[in-house]
Amino acid sequence: MKKLFALAAIAAAAFGVHAQDFPGGKPITIVVPFAAGGPTDRVARDLAEALRKPLDGVSIVVDNTAGAGSTIGNAKVARAKNDGYTLLLTHVGMATTPVLYRKLPYNYETDFEYLGLINDVPMTLVGKPQLEAKNFKELRDWISKSGGKVNLGNAGVGSASHLCGLLFQSELKVEMTTVPYKGTAPAMADLLGGQIDLLCDQTTNTTSQIEAKKVKPYAVTTLKRLSTPALKDIPTLDESGMKNFQVTIWHGLYAPKGTPAPILKKINDALKVALKDPDFIKKEEGLGAVVVNDKRMEPAEHKKFVQAEVARFGPVIKAAGIYAD
């Protein structure tokens, strides 16, 4: 019995040293459950750079594990070794997939350690360059006369663009042909090429395309117009007649369940420093995103916020009758 206690003490001591030495020079992997080049990927790469300094200059690698509306990448992190070297950066899909999918290979409440929210991101309704509609009123008329022949792209079931599209169709009381992709980047590529008509996507992905005049912007999904130079003249859907229409997308950071508390604290402390990094803030603001600077940076508040989002979006998704297997 004494030997067992001694072994347990040695193991605990060894683990404590391991946690204390984190990150210890070993690379950290941030899994992004969407394709490279998309808005969540961009946030992850900017955050990875901002995290390097407060994490002692450690190398941080972004791993794009896309597919199944983010659930493949989420599951990968849920199953990963809980040593702090594998993290997940995802968006509102953490709150929508529990409703959209009848069965998930993970539990959003019990299989992750919540580390803090990163940003809030408005969305924009944009159209292919060939569309003749000059403003939202003309676009709405065109949609009404289309007889359901409008192709509305999204980044996959459970994605931010999917959610925005559901709400948009619900408000207009029209049904469009939804075209899912494995990430926002391929959806945007097809919009630019004219294969789809519309896309409701995050400003982190649309701002540069709007600046370059490669897509037609019709509205933003906030209640007030955005201050970003490239977006400040775009009307809101609310002022365009869709009263109280509001969708903002957030990103959060997670670790596998059971990651030691000292390691979680180091990552959370580093995240708080990164969210105050002037370069990171400037990059996010340039894309129309607002960096979080409130209690949602704390793990417990982050988790409460996600639980509230599940309760908020659940009825909308159920009413649409859209489920994924």
* Proportion of residues in helical segments: 40-55%
Poorly predicted spans = 4-17
What name goes with the CATH superfamily of the largest domain? Bordetella uptake gene, domain 1
Instruction: List SSEs in N-to-C order.
Output: HEHEHEHEHEHEHEHEEHHEH
Structural class: alpha/beta
Would you give an account of this structure?
The protein has 325 residues and is α/β, with parallel strands linked by helices. It has two domains: 25-121 and 249-320, D-Maltodextrin-Binding Protein, domain 2; 122-220, 3-Layer(aba) Sandwich (D-Maltodextrin-Binding Protein, domain 2), CATH 3.40.190.10. Helices cover 42% and strands 18% of the residues. It has helices spanning 2-21, 39-52, 71-78, 93-100, 136-145, 160-172, 184-192, 203-211, 261-274, 278-286, 299-320; strands at 28-32, 60-64, 86-90, 112-127, 151-154, 177-180, 198-202, 216-220, 248-256, 290-291. Strands 1, 2, 3, 4, 5, 6, 7, 8, 9 and 10 form a ten-stranded mixed β-sheet that branches. Helix 2 packs antiparallel against helix 10. Residues 4-17 have low confidence and may be disordered.
